[in-house]
Amino acid sequence: MNIGEVIKSKRQKRNLTQAELGEMLGVTPQAVSRWEMGVSYPDIAMVPAISEALWVSADELLGIARQNAAPLGEVLNQSQADSIYDYIPVPRSGESKRILVVDDSDFMRMMLEDILTHHGHSVLQAENGRECLHILKNESVDVCVLDIGMPVMDGLETLKHIKEEYPQLKVVMLSALSSENNVKLALQLGAEAFVVKPFAAECLTERIG
């Protein structure tokens, strides 16, 4: 389910018209309609307001609900994931990199592209692991930012293929499915870092380098 579908579903559950929701958010009914049809997306900065208006978590709006995650007690936070990777912060190189973003959420890919291009990188997108591997056969990429929970081919299987075929390619996992098992498995398969969703932009950009 993409962000437009979530907005439509939650709006209807609250018995709000597109005009009423638009008034609450300071946008036109036409803008709400375009979101719900998938023609356009709300600005990232509007996510908190949409979350409040529709009584929905930012996680669900961004397509990263943890319905498939491990039980809450087993999910690691960023500090815990970093400890498994022995992560030590280093200054960003400032070099422009070509980054392949792999995530099944349209909105998440758009948000990641906004963050990364703002920091001077160029971005390619794939919506699942199979598409990711197809792009890597035809494009030169410096870093792959890889979600775990995706249809067709999940992120851990994709990581395994990447490291077998492109062992020098840097891979940063970016997922809400941060169980200890997933984080350790990603490390064993060769990922250079694991960023836990929801995340701060600098957390990702620091690990890209």
The chain-level structural class is alpha/beta
Mean pLDDT: 87
Poorly predicted sequence stretches spanning 5 or more consecutive residues? 65-73
Sketch the topology as an H/E string, one letter per element: HHHHHHEHEHEHEHEH
Fraction of residues in H or I helices: 40-55%
Number of strands: 5
Order of neighbouring strands in the sheet with most strands: 2-1-3-4-5
Radius of gyration: 18 Å
Note the total helix count: 11
Instruction: Give the biggest beta sheet.
Output: 5 strands, parallel
Task: For the record, give the distance between the C-alpha atoms at the N and C termini, rounded to a whole number.
Answer: 32 Å
Oligomeric status:
single chain
The dominant shape is elongated
Measured by DSSP, the beta-strand proportion falls in: 5-15%
Task: Give an overview of the whole structure.
This protein is of the alpha/beta class and 209 residues long. The protein has eleven helices and five strands. It has helices at residues 3-13, 18-25, 29-37, 47-54, 58-61, 78-85, 106-118, 129-138, 155-165, 180-189, 201-208, and strands spanning 98-102, 122-126, 143-146, 170-175, 193-196. Helix 8 (129-138) packs parallel to helix 9 (155-165).
